[in-house]
Amino acid sequence: MDKSWLRFHPLSAEFKNGLHIFSSHAFQVASYDGGIKCPCTRCYNRLWFSPEVVEDHLTVDGMDKSYMREPWVWHGETIEDWVQAGWGSA
Ligand SMILES: [Zn+2]
Known about the structure:
Elements: H1 13-30, E1 36-37, E2 48-49, H2 51-60, H3 65-68, H4 79-84
Antiparallel strand pairs: 1-2
Bound molecules: zinc ion.
Protein name: Transposase-associated domain-containing protein
Pfam families: Transpos_assoc
Domain Transposase-associated: 3-77
């Protein structure tokens, strides 16, 4: 799962594009009743919103820092994907 977009400014095209790919992917593989879990600093995966709202939250509030260090299991990433990407050793 591409997470490089998190390094860019929230108003940059790189961030917007990466965020949209992320929310679209999560919606395809990990949605429930039209929503996905919001990993922003306020919701921290406790609340479900439409991908559009999640994109707004992540743009304004940013992603929870502790979730950035974990496999994104609420958004379709498996532990195996995560280890293969080298995140587990970081
Ligand atoms: Zn949120």
